[in-house]
Design goal:
72 residues
Amino acid sequence: MSSDKPSKPLANPKPVRGFSDKLDNAMGWNDGYKNESKVRGFIHGVWHTGAGVVTLNPKEFSRAGDQFKRGW
């Protein structure tokens, strides 16, 4: 199935990205731990789910699923 609509990028506003980076540093989520942390995956999964609801971008829901699976 093809679409005439251009593909939307994932929501990644600079202020949110900065907050996410600060949270990663404060919690020690770096290197491989980013992929192992259930808490981090949950937080990011919630973010991408919300972004998907607001933007109706299917990529957000896919990314949310990837994030929720982290650490399991």
